[in-house]
Specification:
The protein is an alpha+beta fold and 200 residues long. It is built from 4 helices and 7 strands, in the order E-E-H-E-H-H-E-E-E-E-H.
């Protein structure tokens, strides 16, 4: 592997109780991250990021997806997302470049049977910073019960010339989700609007 990987990390979270009430079943979240050398570090402003994206993103995604699926089966996954954090010597565009490409997203999405775009976050941070990986339902983008965020941190990453690249998945939505889906809101608001106009 010539991807400049320094380490992989895997974070597992199992929530049994939320809001003082036991969940009907545990909510399991898995985050797999790779700490890689920033391929544009030390090169000044690089106009064309594409060659390194093509070289790294697909292979990295396949490797990370395999590691995540060893923790949670694709048929169990309901929500997913991705994130990247570049070290302080890099540009946020460098973090974005690693995850905002179909070469990175498609291997993960296809492996879990997803059809939605992957919810995302990209940022610049110092080593040990708390990182947030947002998730949404892998197929239903208005399903608010599956709007989740996985928080994680790596004590020694990202280094100034590194990028953390991460994918995450959950086997359910929030333990006691009880807010309306987006499509219910739309239907109710459209109905109200129709009544208002009819009364004019």
């Amino acid at each position: 592997m010539t991807l400049g990987i320094r380490k992989f990390t895997t974070f597992l979270e199992e929530t049994l109780v939320e809001g003082g009430r036991a969940a009907s079943r545990p909510v399991n979240i898995v985050v797999v991250s790779a700490v890689i050398q920033n391929p544009w570090a030390g090169r000044g402003f690089v106009e064309d990021l594409r060659p390194e994206i093509i070289r790294i993103a697909g292979e990295l995604s396949h490797e990370m997806t395999g590691r995540l699926l060893r923790q949670i089966g694709p048929e169990q996954i309901e929500a997913c997302g991705k994130a990247a954090a570049v070290g302080i010597n890099g540009e946020i565009e460098h973090a974005s470049a690693m995850i905002h490409t179909l070469r990175f997203g498609n291997p993960f999405r296809e492996a879990i049977g997803g059809t939605n775009y992957l919810e995302f976050a990209n940022t610049r941070n110092a080593p040990g910073a708390l990182l947030c990986l947002p998730m949404m339902h892998k197929n239903e983008n208005g399903k608010r019960s599956h709007f989740l965020t996985a928080n994680f941190q790596i004590a020694d990453a990202p280094g100034p010339d590194e990028i953390i690249v991460a994918i995450g998945a959950s086997d359910s939505g929030r333990a006691h989700a009880r807010i309306a889906d987006r499509f219910q809101d739309i239907a109710e608001m459209e109905a109200k609007k129709a009544v208002t106009f009819s009364g004019i």
